[in-house]
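Hi everyone, sorry if this is the wrong subforum. Our group has a chain we'd like a structural model of before ordering constructs, and none of us has done structure prediction before. Sequence below.
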Amino acid sequence: MTTYLYEQDLVTQKYRILVAMRHDSLVRKIAQELNIPVQELRRYLIEHLDMIQLENLPARAEMADDHADQGDAVARALGREKYSLYLRILSGATMDAIFSEVDARVHTGTPVDDAIAYGRTQIREALKI
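Answer:
Right subforum, don't worry. Here is the predicted structure as tokens:
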């Protein structure tokens, strides 16, 4: 009989990572930004990110705050690089498509806040939360 040296179901361990102090604070901040329930975001992160990505979320978020989308205020407000490149919550292609729609709306005269709200709705739909 073969025995495993590791657990096959990592949900409990991933959950423990996400409820640690720094991680919990970050998850709550992201959930508030995207207007989604914290538990739903945790579930999504557990299902879509591996242990290393989860462990590094706070450090990646700090880097995103310092370096993401420095030259584009709309992209920064939407979190284009933050959610795709740094946190890897969405694929780059999905986020680029959402940003293109938001940017097009801004260029056609939609107020930036309304365009960002639309973009965040699209992010929620892409996450299927």
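For your construct planning: The mean pLDDT is 92. Residues 92-107 form the longest helix (16 residues).
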